[in-house]
Amino acid sequence: MAKMHVTTTINGEPEEFLCDPHDSMLDMLRGALGLTGAKEGCGTGDCGACSIMLDGRLVCSCLMLAPEAEGKKIDTIEGMARGETLHPLQQKFLEMAALQCGICTPGVLMASRALLERNPDPTESEVRFWLAGNLCRCTGYDKIVRAVMETAAEMRGAAR
Amino acid sequence: MTEIRYIAPTTLDEAVGAYAAAAGAARILAGGTDLLVQMRSGAAQPGTIIDIKKIAETTSIQETPEGGFVIGAAVSGAVLAEHPRLGQAWPGVLEAINLIGSTQVQGRASAGGNLCNGSPAGDSVPAMVAAGAVVNLQGPNGRRTMPVEAFPAGPGRTNLAPGEILVSFTLPPRPKGSGDAYLRMIPRTEMDIAVVGVGVSLTLENGTVTAARVGLGAVAPTVLLVEDAAKALIGSKLEDAALEAAAAACSAACKPINDKRGTIAYRIKVAGVLLKRAVAIAAERAGRN
Amino acid sequence: MNVINNKWIGQSTIRPDGADKVTGRASYSADTTMPGMIWGKVLRSPHAHARIVSIDTSRAEALPGVKAVVTHKDIVDFPLDKSVMLGIQDMRWMCRNVMAREKALFHGHPIAAVAAMSERIAAEACRLIEVEYEVLPHVIEIEDAIKPDAPILHDFVSFEGRPSNIAGKLEHKLGEVEAGFAAADVVIERSFTTRPVHQGYIEPHSCLVSVVDGKATIWSSSQGQFMVRAMTSLLTGIPQSDIRAIPAEIGGGFGGKTIIYLEPVATILAKKTGRPVKMVMSREEVMRATGPTSGSMSTVKIGAKKDGTIVAAQGTFYLQAGGLPGSPIRGAAGCAFAPYNIPNVLSTGFDVVSNRSKVAAYRAPGAPIGAYAVECVLDEVAEALKMDPLALRLKNAARQGTKAAHGPVYPVIGFVETIEAAMAHPHSQAPLGKHQGRGVASGFWFNAGGESSAQVNVTEDGNVVVTTGHPDIGGSRASIANITAELLGIDYKRVSVLIGDTATIGYSNLTGGSRVLFASAMVVTQSTEKVIKTLCERAAKIWKIDPEAVVWEDGEAKPAGENAGKFPGLSLAQIAAKASETGGPIGAGVQQNTQGAEGGFATHVCDVEVDVDLGIVRVLRYTSFQDVGRAVHPAYVEGQMQGGAAQGIGWALSEEYLYDKNGKVDNASFLDYRMPVCSDLPMLDAVMIEVPNPKHPQGVRGVGEVPLVPPLAAVANAVANALGKRFYSLPMSPPRVLEVLDGA
């Protein structure tokens, strides 16, 4: 099977890879690209653990074909912190214990950042419905929702 | 193992040519939120995957001079939600499309894919049927249109001709005093497939219904246009008797099955309940326009 | 010990593994790769019940890219007539669960496995394996499995002298239950069913195994690397000393990863091929072939006096085991009546096999099933006596000295405190609207001690590294850092906590039974106390005084007694710097079979609203009250309480296994299995009550499991309160709710 050559941008850096036409983006990220922060919880778009940004939109990388990355901008959890400096959401998740086993955490963080970029002042209900595609089995979501809202409040305060 | 190709044509002609040439061994890729799941399970094993997201007509939203909309088949729910006027004119259509899957799925999933998937439970379809949407198709023999309710042929099947591609939906202009709504029943609050879905579109003049359409999903092999429900509403001032008659028409139209998502008895009852609730929302919206 | 003025114990510190987990760097087992790695895939039974006549792997082996195929012939056999126990697991069943031998016992049962150059080739090769089956009638539900004419799964299982699907019975008896009922003013008896539910961890099972020179290295996420080593050793014949099991970060377990599925298979494939073999289950495989916990059929009868005193209680609990014996009847029959002081109790559990995947532990295994039935009947008793349901529970609550039907006489316990806290909480007085209702329920879990090992080492620069042997699911590393920092009087950031592998730390039993912090805090405390003793000795040496005259205070060795004030204190760093000249490296380890774990109790209050036209139940408010012993890390204790409540709400309302007529799971996906999503739940309030366990240096009680015991009944009682109608089966899904409502 002929491999396809794909040129893309991942976390701000130009990247090239070879893939089979039916490889998912998640398989490419976790395989050849070595970016294992996105997790496969289901492979069918039902858990959100593989969430990434595709041209600024939140998507499940398990529901995207790798060749579709051609010419696109992809952001993954690995690009969320700036060096040692964590994103405010990452920091708040640590401070407020908004993770337990941590397997859903990269996806939840990617989704939460996408929310706050669009809506800096979400209600609890808006947070809950935005994150409905990110399954977490450990926390009951309580501390996740609180951490997202607390981060939003702090970021609004910092922006003022 | 079969050879698989991925192509991303930039014109419709190219896409139609490749689709027709593949003679049934190809699948159209819009958002991919159904196709990739089917490929993973082995239910779909396409020889060629034709990505239509590089084609202008399938990925744009146009407003017609008369005040209608032409929505590209591959426009994602998230993009539709950001349109400044679509949600004002057709809030029910938009909420139906936006109910498909999670935020992540909204980033990709399209109304075109939802319709072509052929599921009787597709959320956007009853709302499109209620809206009187028309689908624009292009195939080897040129272009044609059909009402959206004529498109599905049964679970997982459509009335697309061989080689034909769904290009866009046309939503008609809205007369003053119009409103639409879509409601679905799911056990959870999100991330479920509709057990019943009801789309309602109404036009009211001085409190009297002058036009109505009702689309009903997940209760029969295809999404239904329930004309008896519309008849019960037209001419009424949405009195209880008219609502009961319309609800009864919806329940009567159901030809459901027992499956893992719901029972026959449950679906029949819920169709009527949702009809009444959706009418109330649509009427309230109509009153504001 | 139990000093109240703690600096670190009781602080919600940032977990040591946190930064790795929020940046995507943390390594879970599916994240691990090795040069030369190939892929393994399992062929699974397409029948729910079938005799395996023959397996022909020749076509699969001939496929280019295929490196090896295994069947049950490659796995060590454990003959049916001789039980070999590993903990609570019988290896006769484990060996048959990992790879079917005589029969396929459920749809999805592993039949063979392939290692190949890619996942796709391995999957293709699985399709080329030719298996001849003699398809047998199957049975799924308990009620069918215990009928006299039911298809029998195992010829060797008999009950009351006849071939049967009842594979075991357990009975707890206290007093004379018949005499007790005769003396009661009110007797209520009800029958209940619950459906099997999956643990639902987001991380599917996976492993990577390399075998070089006969020595195996296993990377996998499990609830116990030593369990992985022991089971793999037994099933492959490789001695334990030649297996190194490395615990990857674990993406949720909830009991479901206390047994293994893939590791021995991958080990044999790696041995055969000489290459590292990786195996990763799909979600569908997880749903078809791992876990879940049992479905159940129960009858509970409770008798009480007019004043609310419960005089007798009887429970019969039938639990599904899946295709092989071993359901958690001990949890169901043992925990059901454990919160109450009842003089006459008869509690019986039956283990029933049927053609489903073999059950695995799930958070307080069995206990939620027992509590569901008991706590719902208690609600009806309260109703009949016109008593407040919390007051009824308080009147009969077990206290210190109560004799429990499952054996113990309780020491200091905090059950009463949970009920009193619930009664005093604003939640219990908050007004309710139309179609809204409030329910309460309580629950008990045994908790556990057992084997643990720890090593506490002082680094040359005066910091501390602690190694324990328990995979950390819910934040145990953070708690251990708090305890070590507290004991040493140093900043917790100076303590690194690691999970050792089977070659680098001594035997440590599973992360399970709510035992990890209880047991590991005990061995870490003893190790740290040894280190402190050494530090004092070294200081004494430096000062040339008697070691008995040195105390450890505020992170320093200080001269005490008549020497007090004679020398400036010596810090950990100062003593560490002189370690070589004063006697060598400083560190200590303790390995112990820990004792003294005491039970955990909780009381939950739940408000629901019912959409009576659609049958939808939504939880509006939820508050858990739990005796947590001592909250070493409060945020992660709350996290356990909240997570358990959420799982219980799912069990009560939406989660269940659905089977088609061929005995195949019909909803083997997250889409249709319906675990609660974020928008389904309200905030989950957690009220921690600290009644320290006197047998533990920090007062720790297990906290992880009891949170899943009360919710099923709390939700069910709330729905009953909202609707004035009772539900005797779970889940209370919308169609079932409408059925009950329309049955009026």
What is the compact description of this entry?
Chain A is α+β, with helices and mostly antiparallel strands and 160 residues long. Helix content of chain A is 33%, strand content 16%. The N and C termini of chain C lie far apart (59 Å).
Tell me what you see in this structure.
The complex is a heterotrimer of chains A (160), B (289) and C (744). Chain A has 160 residues and is of the alpha+beta class. Chain A is 33% helix and 16% strand. Chain A has 2 domains: 4-79, Ubiquitin-like (UB roll), CATH 3.10.20; 88-159, Orthogonal Bundle (DNA polymerase, domain 1), CATH 1.10.150.120. Chain A has helices at 25-30, 88-95, 105-118, 124-130, 142-159, and strands at residues 4-10, 13-19, 51-54, 57-60, 73-75. In chain A, helix 2 crosses helix 5. The radius of gyration of chain B is 19 Å and the shape is globular. Chain C contains 22 helices and 30 strands. The chains are: A alpha+beta (160), B alpha+beta (289), C alpha+beta (744). At the A-C interface, helix 2, helix 3, helix 4 and helix 5 of A face helix 1 and helix 19 of C.
List keywords for this structure.
heterotrimer; A: 160 residues; alpha+beta; Ubiquitin-like (UB roll); DNA polymerase, domain 1; five-stranded mixed sheet; 16% strand; globular; C: 744 residues; Aldehyde Oxidoreductase, domain 3; Aldehyde Oxidoreductase, domain 4; 3 domains; seven-stranded mixed sheet
